[in-house]
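Quick question, first post here. What does this chain look like in 3D?
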Amino acid sequence: MPALIEHRLRLGRRDVTLLEGPAGWGECSPLPGYPCDPAAARRAAVEAAVEGFPTARRGDVAVNALVSDIGFDPVALVGFDTVKVKMRVPTDVELVARVRDAVGPRVALRVDANAAWDVDTAVAIAGRLALLDIELLEQPVASLEELAEVRRRCSVPIAADESVRSIDDARNLARLGAADVVVLKVQPLGGVRAALVIAEESGVPAIPTSMMETSVGLAAGLALACALPEVPFACGLATASLLPADVTREPLVPRGGRLSTRLVVPDPELLTRYSVAPSSQVVSS
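> Answer (accepted):
Ran it through. Tokens below.
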């Protein structure tokens, strides 16, 4: 394997490792509390730095805005055709209703529960969300078996995220009919190429989404979105502005609700500013 240069950084409370290699830059930055095997994240970073990304089928994709607390700013949602609301407790349905009122009926609205509920709770909340014309309910329960039951019992389309981390998981999703859509994050799946296989094996449309990475990690998610055969849903890649800092002077942010591919190269001054250890050469990873 070609030698890589490893840059260990700290951005706010986030530990980030960037790998610099012959094909570009890769990011390994597992999010605390979120299910992501560090070894898979490392493989994703090595792939980006050593192999680069698969051939793109398109140059840009639609992305969704994100609402995660009750103090959302309606102005920040202007220009997006899709808005995603993070929802943890049943009373957050009121937040979803407020967002629906703010964006109007033409904007697609999806909800992400991050496996917070049991089956009965999920079915009950899905019934209330159906009245708000929800596009998708993402990972309302933990397992694929539970997702399949929720999907059988409600009318809102279901998306799987945390419950799919391998090819076997993708095949089980297809076998169980557990979801209408699969959400793909590059780091937990071990790279763009692995994510493309998982998308194919799942047998349902895919939504590439970030794990709140820097622009280097977002570039990998965008590469996945641009390499998929079809991208029928807005992607969850408009998250650069949610970080306390980035590693490039020109963060990968959307324009007019769309994110366009371009080369992302970290700024040397920013690498130095956020470094927590001297850069080191890695012969193998």
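The longest strand covers residues 4-11.
The domain at 54-262 is CATH 3.20.20.120 (TIM Barrel).
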